[in-house]
Amino acid sequence: MPQLKVKLVITGDDFGYCDRRNRGIVDCFQAGGISNVSLLVNAASAENAAELAKRHRIPIGLHANLSEGAPVCQELKTSSLLNKDGFFHGKMGFRQVLQSGQMNMAEVEAELRAQIKRFCELTGRLPSHMDGHQHVHVLPEVREVFAQVLSDFGISCTRVPVEPGLHSCTFLPPHLRDFYLQVEKDALQSVEVFHRYGIRWPDVYLGLSTMGQNMSISNLQRALSFALQARTSIAAQAGDLCGPGLCQPITVELMVHPGYPSHPLQGGCGEGPDDFSQSSDRLHELNMLRDPVLHSYYKQQGILLCAFSDL
């Protein structure tokens, strides 16, 4: 049996988005392709997702959503978080309103608290971890509110989307690469805030470079190789390259989006499913994640799938 080198949390994001996404995520979990899920509590199939998680004992956290669909907090029918149609501003729209200085942080806090309470209603407990849909939790100002809310509820784990090797991913389209690098910049500036509130996260984050059609066995192995290199580097910095420090596994989160493609007009968070959810990318990720070749690679490299609660 190879030495345990990596504790790998593979998180299926957007659980609850639609029934077909839910079914695909459960199939992926049962096939050993993911080990954890993040729930969108304002999504069309959130109740179904929570029930499936209970039935199949799937470790579940909260995918806090401030950018897509309708709010959970009933007091926010008119809010800086919402457009004229009563929906969140969208991935880029949220960032634009925030940058303009027009975002009310008290309303951000109210919605985050309402989503945690809704999660508790659906699952019967607090989330084991909490991150942000479309990475809104690491944005300026939001990160401070997010950290305070997590601290108040005693939720100790989050996601810091800084991916090793991202700068060398020349295969990414320029618009995606620019967005990912901005996410990384925001995430790096969140580290001090999260540390200050006692919030933790895995040693290494992966997933930006392996989304959709960019997910392949070779790309996943490439990404995981950076985690293995980071483990060696950490041990070397500790002056323990050949000692017991090297025996400690590194912790890694891989963000993924498996599922069956959404049908038009079915699912979403109040406005219907987006193009990403309706594309074949969902099924492609599902098939890659349950590929026996990848599972053999985990065993060969000493990579153990686990949940946030196992870290």
Automatic annotation (TrEMBL):
Question: Alphabetically, which GO biological process terms does the record hold?
Answer: carbohydrate metabolic process
CDD domains documented for this protein? YdjC_like_2
One GO MF term, please? metal ion binding
Any Pfam family: YdjC
Could you tell me which InterPro entries the record lists for this protein? Glyco_hydro/deAcase_b/a-brl, YdjC-like
Q: What keywords tag this UniProt record?
A: Carbohydrate metabolism, Hydrolase, Magnesium, Metal-binding
- What is its cofactor? Mg(2+)
The signal peptide here is none
Q: Which PANTHER family match?
A: CARBOHYDRATE DEACETYLASE, YDJC DEACETYLASE FAMILY MEMBER
What function does the entry list?
Answer: Probably catalyzes the deacetylation of acetylated carbohydrates an important step in the degradation of oligosaccharides.
What family is reported?
Belongs to the YdjC deacetylase family.
Q: What is the protein named? A: Carbohydrate deacetylase
Organism, as annotated: Electrophorus electricus
